[in-house]
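---------- Forwarded message ----------

FYI, see the Phosphotransferase enzyme family protein record below. Original note from H. follows.
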Amino acid sequence: MLNSMNGNPESERGDHVAAALAGAYGLAARTITQLPIGQGTINFRVVCDDDQEVFVKNYPGGTDLFAEREAIALSARALEAGIPGAQVLLNQAGDVIDSSRPLSVSVWEWASGQVVTRLSSAQLAAAGTALGRIHTLFADYPVPAAPAVEHWRGMDIDDLAATIDQLLDIIADRVRAGIGDRFDAEAQRTLLERRDMLARIPELFADLPGELTMQVLHGDYSPVNLLFTGETLSAVLDFRPPDPFLLAYDLGRMAFYPNIVTGEDNWLDAAATFVSAYRQAHLGVPGVDVRACGRVALLQLLKSLYGVKQHYLKPGLFQDDLDDFWLLRHQAANTLLSELAAIDALLAELVGT
């Protein structure tokens, strides 16, 4: 086997992947390449001796494999319903995850296509249609009596402010020690801005309708989990476990995704294209959910320190990407907050109220 990671620190992990493929799937790996994507799993592209290409997810220790199996079941259900995606391969025991070796893995057929972070109108429409179909498909999953949304609505703003202060203290210590860098300066600026923005959160929650649809979602619907071949959506990837949450979350997260909001002058038109296609594919979606999706997206951004928190407290797998993502998300939060009236007007127009 020619291992593309030979000589790198990851080569031992690559050897474990090769052993799992051979022992549990009957696949002989020719080349194994670790991909610079993902934070929750370590991911590989493998070319086998028979020229078959597969995508391998390695689940770190402590991962809830039962929940991950449920996520794979959602992916399989969507694929069976005609939503483009990747097919998971069963190991020789008939399981979707092999945990019989040092590395727990799932193995998938390689999905063709490319990630596009700045989508064309046709791509936005295809993405909206797919999410509408997914929400329609998953609407019959049971919702528990006390879903996670209650915890989300009851967020502790004082605790969030305390975490911001903790991060600012770490940055101040670095600056005093003479080791502050450019990201420290950007992180300090954005964290101070974010702390001031926290005062807006209570009113945003107060204006959010109480009766919003809760159901099983994709859970991580964003451009990085969509593959396109030209204008055609060729795969929807990385479904998350079936933990019911606000339908408006999935919808708003993609409609007002940071790359779109910060990278397109006509980002409101882009959101309208996506939401319109979604509504055509999910005719039963309540108007209140559509009208709320912009505020839900904004609240999710405001309450999250994802990226900068990892930088100073527990670095992620690809921390440079997380650093950039924090700055992008913060910029998007600023834009959404300043343009909230225009967002509300657009969404109300789309649902005719």
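H. also flagged this: The chain has two domains: 11-109, 121-351.
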